[in-house]
């Protein structure tokens, strides 16, 4: 079993622009942070200042032995107003990509990771039927300018997350953005303030995380297909995919149908647009157990992460097998991680998760890479800086990076392409 990882298996870690760059002031998330009554625990501010410190960060990740870096581009920086593209931002991301290549890290680039330009909200956000044209125009500029430096592209991160959120809140008829509690999202004052900061009204305010009705899901699907066509038309050799957040859905007696429906909603809804992709970005953090009355809470005494997820690294292998039964394209694990202040548990989580990946490879499943979430402790959306997913700690007062043992562990795995070294 020790040598079953493919020769060219890609080992790396992941971030998202909004969570690490800092001062993405033109984003809808910035408006949400600063809205009156905002439920965000912290303001992102400089975050870990990677917009300035990217070169040092990339060199650090490479020095650990990692082989890839999955990160996102910030649409609101590249296109600060509709149809107006920033040469400065494009050249910044060109430097980031060139630095990845310089230090031997394969860049895997997400073109959209949750955050959107404020101006998009003034056009009705992700409910606007013109979204496929608007998004693909942005993608076209990026790929024409930078496509020769990008071997792998994710059009969207976690296209299915809004549906998962819809299921959680459907009982009370509200659909909040990711991580936002019911009370905060249903507060007109907070929503109206966020919309106002985007220069619009609450009826036009429709963020990515609200894409859960039939019409907006259709718009999102069309946006992916149109973007893929544009990307391949310019750079046919770029591998194009998208990612989904997928828990390992299990059941106890009487809950089989509930779990099956959840899987169909969370995964099956999007299979039609993924079939033509070059790879699938699989993202997993835990399992969910369903009974006849819905989600069953973890048993008393079960180990929980800072996010209150059950510590269950075996979920990764289980989800890979489920996906592989329905989708016959290569898989890249684009996120897999744990929020914990006990780094020994992070090492255990990585090890046991990768044992599952190794078993799946041995079974013949085509898995091309593994990206841990996250490279750094960073801004975790409405949870602020309270969740520590990173393999590298950051002192935000000084922006000093402190390598954790888990980073060294993952680096050794990457260098040896094996769990034994």
TrEMBL record:
Q: Name one GO cellular component term.
A: cytosol
Keywords assigned: Glycosidase, Hydrolase
- Supply the InterPro entries for this chain: GH, Glyco_hydro_1
Which Gene3D superfamilies does the UniProt entry name for this protein? Answer: Glycosidases
Which GO terms fall under biological process for this protein?
carbohydrate catabolic process
One Pfam annotation reads: Glyco_hydro_1
- One example GO MF annotation: beta-glucosidase activity
Q: Which PANTHER family match?
A: GLYCOSYL HYDROLASE (PTHR10353), LP05116P (PTHR10353:SF36)
Q: Which family does it belong to?
A: Belongs to the glycosyl hydrolase 1 family.
| Protein name (Swiss-Prot/TrEMBL) | Glycoside hydrolase family 1
Please tell me the species this chain comes from. Paenibacillus antarcticus
